[in-house]
Amino acid sequence: MKLNRRFFYVLFLTSFALFFVDFFIKQWTVHSLYSPRLVFETPFGIDFLLQKVTNRGAAWGMFSAYHDILLGFRVGVIGALLAYILFLCKSRWIAAASMLIMTGAFGNVFDCYYYGYVIDMFHFIFWGNSYGVFNFADLLIFVGALGLSLTLFIKEKEKGKGRAEKKEKGPRKSAKKLR
pLDDT of 6-25, one tens digit each? Predict the structure, then answer.
């Protein structure tokens, strides 16, 4: 099944909308968020803060010494996902999940060119332990990877179920041929 044009238009318009949401959240963070703000605190020990953090690396600042290589890798991932979605993908769910990953990666690449670093602002603290600070683009990448994993897991399960049914039914041999 080939994906139709209307679906691609909806997918790309959604991608642009999500990119601009990410961009405006980061603009607000840069221009309005000067000190950490506690958004909510629960009796269960979960706190959520808005806090401006700059990041020159990947998740939690990893590979910050390899900024250019990391940037090239991100651009390569964006190109590979775009080519896959346009030319090879046959599943709407896989295309949508891949588009979320691509949009998040593009948001972070845009930050690298626009600011010189990635801006993170969402900070969760669980029972006194800091989870880390991330942004909306990272959330898109996470949701896209989760969606891709679930879709592939379900497809593999369905494939396995189909194989089991074929084995059970199998070709029947008539009694005359056995004699």
Answer: 998 999 999 999 999 999 99
